Amino acid sequence: MILCVLKLNFTHTALNARHLHYVNIITSTSVCKNCLHFEFSGSSPEDDASKVPASFTFMVPKKEISMVPDMGKWKRSQAYADYIGFILTLNEGVKGKKLTCEYKVSETVEKILGLLGTLDRWINETPPVDQPSRFGNKAYRTWYAKLDQEAEALVSAVLPADQQAAAAEIAVYLKEAVGNPTRIDYGTGHEAAFAAFLCCLCKVGALRVDDQLAIIFKIFNRYLSVMRKLQKTYRMEPAGSQGVWGLDDFQFLPFIWGSSQFIDHPTLEPRHFIDEKVVNEHHQDYMFLECIKFINEMKTGPFAEHSNQLWNISAVPTWSKVNQGLIRMYKAECLEKFPVIQHFKFGSLLSIQPVKP
After folding, report:
1. How far apart are CA 90 and CA 212, in angstroms?
2. Which pTM was predicted?
3. Handedness of CA 207, 208, 209, 210 (dihedral sign)
C-alpha cells in the first residue's frame, strides 16, 4: 500500500506535530482495496446465497479483546472484514446522493424506524431527574432499563419469520448502541455497535441489497436524531473524547458517509462546511452538514477552537480526499484503538474467527 501525503497550504492555523498526524491521515489517498465489498442478500430469493441458513446456530455475543495483544485477533477476524466491508460498501452506495433523493423504503426499514421511534418515545416518557451533578442524568438508567428488558422483543419484530432465532444475538448490539448505563456516556464504540446491528440484519437477510440507501438515509439518520436527543436530554458524557483533538465528541460514521455524498458536487467544496449560511441552507440534504449544525448548536466560541480537526479538514481540496482520509482516520483512531474495541462483542454473525483464505 502506497501512502501519498500531500503538502497542503493550510491558511487556518499553524500546525504542530499532532496537527500533522491528523493531516497526514486525512490527506492520504490510499484505501484498502481488499475491504471494499460486503455481500448483501439479493433483491430476490434466488439471490440469497450470502444469507445465513435457517438452521444456523446463533450465540449471544461476548467480549474477546481483553488485552492490547488481542487486537491482532480483531484485525484478522471475519468480524473486522465484514464490518469494514459493510461501512465501505455503504460509503460507495451514497456517493453523490442527497438525503432527499428517491429510494426504496422496504417494510423491514419501516419496522426499524418504528423501533427507533419507540426509543424516542421512551425518552419523552422518562424526563431528567433533579440532581446535583450537571452531567450524566441518572434518569438515563431508567430509560436504558426499558431497552434492556425489551430489546429482544423489539428485534424479533423486525426479523423475518425464518430468522427469529437470531433475535437474542442481534439484540445485544442494539443494547450496546445507545451508550453505557454505568458511566452515562456515549461514543464511537456505541456508534459502531449500531453499525454492527445493521450489518447483522443484513447478514440474516432482513435488510437487502436494495435497502442500502435507506440504511443510511432513513435508519442511520433516525438513529442519529435519537442519539442526539439522548445526549441532550440526559447530558451524556463523551466516551473516550479526545477533546479538541478528536473529530467529534460522539460520532464518526456520518462524517464518512456524509463526505461521500459530496463527492463530485459541482459547487460545494470542503472549505464551505465551516460557513454557517451554507450549513443552514443545505443541512437537510447532507449528513455531514447536519453534523456540523449539531456541533454549532452544542458548542460556543470559534469553530477553529472547539472543532480544530474539522477546521483543518476544511482545507483539504476535494471531498474525495476528505472521504478517503476519514476512512483511514476511522481505522486508525477507532477500529485500531484498544480502548474502543475492548468493548466490542463477537458472536456467530460477527465472528472473532480469522478470515478464511
Report:
1. 6
2. 0.88
3. negative
- Maximum pairwise Cα distance, the chain: 59
DSSP 136: S
Measured in residues, the chain has a length of: 357
- CA separation (Å) from 128 to 139, 148, 233, 234, 330? 5, 19, 7, 6, 33
Q: Over 50: is that where the pLDDT of 33 sits?
A: no
Task: Tell me which DSSP letter residue 157 carries.
Answer: T
- How far is CA 72 from its chain centroid? 22
Say what the pLDDT of residue 30 is.
Answer: 43
Closest C-alpha to 203, from 32, 50, 46: 50
Long-range contacts formed by 68-77: CB under 8 A, 24+ apart: 68/338, 71/336, 71/338, 71/341, 73/352, 73/354, 74/341, 74/344, 74/352, 75/336, 76/354, 76/355, 77/346, 77/351, 77/352, 77/353, 77/354, 77/355
**Block residue for cell numbers 467480549:** 63
The Cα–Cα gap between 185 and 270 comes to 30
Query: What's the CA gap between 52 and 122, in Å, rounded?
Result: 33
pLDDT digits (tens, 9 = 90+) for 180-196: 999 999 999 999 999 99
CB 177 within 8 A of CB 184: no
Unique residue bearing C-alpha cell 454505568: 182
pLDDT at position 24: 52
- Bridge partners (DSSP) listed for residue 237: 185
Residue 162 three-state SS:
helix
In sign, the C-alpha dihedral spanning 48, 54, 60, 64 is: negative
3-state secondary structure of 346: strand
What pLDDT digit, counting tens, does each position of 240-253 carry? 765 545 688 889 99
Q: How many CB atoms lie within 10 A of CB 141?
A: 16
Cell numbers linked to 25:
491521515
**Secondary structure of 30-77 in the HEC alphabet?**
CCCHHHCCCCCECCCHHHCCCCCCCCCCCCCCEECCCCHHHHHHHHHE
Phi, psi of 159 (to 5 degrees): -80, 150
CA-CA distance, 336 to 72, in Å (whole number)?
9
Q: What is the mean pLDDT of residues 321-328?
A: 96
